[in-house]
Amino acid sequence: MSQTIKFGTDGWRGRIADDYTFANVRRCTQGFATYLLKYGHKDQWVIVGHDKRFHGENFAVAVAEVLAGNGLRVYLTNGSSPTPVISYSVIAKKAVGAVNVTASHNPYTDNGFKVRDENGGAIAPEGLKEIEAFIPNTEEETVRIPIAEAETNGLVVRFDPDPDYIKHIQTLIDLQPIKDAGLKVLVDPMWGNGAGWFPRLLGGGKTEIIEIHNVRNPIFPEMSRPEPIPPNVDIGLAATLEHNADVLIINDGDADRVGIGDENGQFIDQLRAYGLLAYYLLEVRGERGPIVKTISTTKMLNKLAAIYDVPVYETGVGFKFVAPKMLETQALIGGEESGGYAFRGHVPERDGILAGLFMLDMMVKLQRKPSEILELLFSKVGGHYYDRVDTPFKGERQEKIDNILAAKPETLGGLKVTELVTIDGYQFQLEDGGWLLIRFSGTEPIIRVYCETTHQDKVQAILQDGLKIAGIE
To answer: For position 243, what pLDDT does the model report?
Structure first.
């Protein structure tokens, strides 16, 4: 019996050699090909790329073969490429979509399959449901052309996606002041696709770029997974102090997310990073426009929006919600709690490289170190404190949901609950403007409990109350 393939918050992911097999990748590709053909895209181009995980380049070839077999033309990257580079290639090559073979921040055991639309952004939920419905039950129902034949016939063309992306990035930010600033920047690409990018973009000036974890190693040593949050960032934070660096820039495995460490080797969590990026665009660059945020990210954005008189739109978790809303509203910035941020004038896709460059530009323009810039942000919106617990769960999801809904707590961590919001998961809003969110991961069998509050001493108490409501103690 064939395995059912379901798309989560950002595509399909599975365990290599278990459910993530060549047969299932071909089935998934057939579903995407049928979807594209339904909307009249025969003979049009699709971008295909991959990350540095085990067999990534070979899975990407399998994708290209099926797309070619269905009468689509393929630009296949000539090596591993960051997700934002692949996404921008959709625009540069006037393609109708993309497939990216990556499991992003998942453990080394996994690989994944991301699909992108003609804007280079995530496909909206209704489109993903169509693709799922088109996935055949067996590999025998897929159509493919061997890669050598497809290349000979011009159906698959290998290309270098980097030059178009670099040219575009240089229209969004002036890199020369960062090169000339004399900063010492430590970069941790987490063994992934971001390796080499900051030296390439910022080399040749007074600023020094030092990289760690910058070769291909699909088992991701010194971290449980290539996700830019503690404890995976601990080696990088220690290296920041060792090298006396001014800042740490961390990218996840496919470089669509960013993590930041300050000059003291302290992690700046991803909610604060989002607040800083919004502050940079609104205050430092003087730009205006809507902010798109998922329910799981910071209320600092709402406070900044009020100060600078811009609207905020809140969505469910995942760029399949964020990207369409950004396009609809012509948003200035969009982002989520995972450390993924997208920007106006670019593709509606997370870009950990551009986000890192923006952080460096803010340091240069304000002539301040990261901890000092964070203090500037807090002087505007007040201190905000965040934490999150991810726990594998057993039993039925519906039973967990029933227990959460039945809880109806009056207080969490001693703070009064003012409202329950169910856009995505179960968010208990608190009297101080903070919140506790309980939701199930869209890509893994994990329940997540997150909170943000203006009371630093109440973070753990709120989380513990949340774990009790979720049935995890």
So the answer is: 98
Q: What is the pLDDT of residue 473?
A: 66
CATH class, 385-469 region? alpha beta
Quote the pLDDT of residue 443.
65
Domain ranges of the chain: 12-164, 173-381, 385-469
Three-class SS of the chain: CCCCCCCECCEEEEEECCCECHHHHHHHHHHHHHHHHHCCCCCCEEEEEECCCCCHHHHHHHHHHHHHHCCCEEEEECCCCCHHHHHHHHHHCCCCCEEEECCCCCCCCEEEEEEECCCCCECCHHHHHHHHHHCCCCHHHCCCCCHHHHHHCCCEEEECCHHHHHHHHHHHCCCHHHHHCCCEEEEECCCCCCCCHHHHHHCCCCCEEEECCCCCCCCCCCCCCCCCCCCCCHHHHHHHHHCCCCEEEEECCCCCCEEEECCCCCEECHHHHHHHHHHHHHHHCCCCCCEEEECCCCCHHHHHHHHHCCCEEEECCCHHHHHHHHHHHCCCEEECCCCCEEECCCCCCCCHHHHHHHHHHHHHHHCCCHHHHHHHHHHHHCCCEEEEEEEECCCCHHHHHHHHHHHCCCEECCEEEEEEECCCCEEEEECCCCEEEEEECCCCCEEEEEEEECCHHHHHHHHHHHHHHCCCC
Check: CB of residue 305 under 8 Å from CB of residue 296: no
CA distances from 200 to 195, 210, 216, 342, 365 (A): 10, 12, 17, 21, 21
**385-469 and 12-164 share a CATH fold:** no
Q: Which of 94, 25, 10 is nearest to 62 (CA)?
A: 25
Tell me, what amino acid is at 262? D
Q: What is the CATH code for 12-164?
A: 3.40.120.10
pLDDT tens digits, one per residue of 205-258: 999 999 999 999 999 999 999 999 999 999 999 999 999 999 999 999 999 999
Q: What is the pLDDT of residue 395?
A: 74
- What stretches in the chain show pLDDT beneath 50? none
- Residue 433's CB: how many other CB atoms inside 10 A? 18
What is the CATH number that goes with domain 173-381? 3.40.120.10
CB 418 within 8 A of CB 409: no
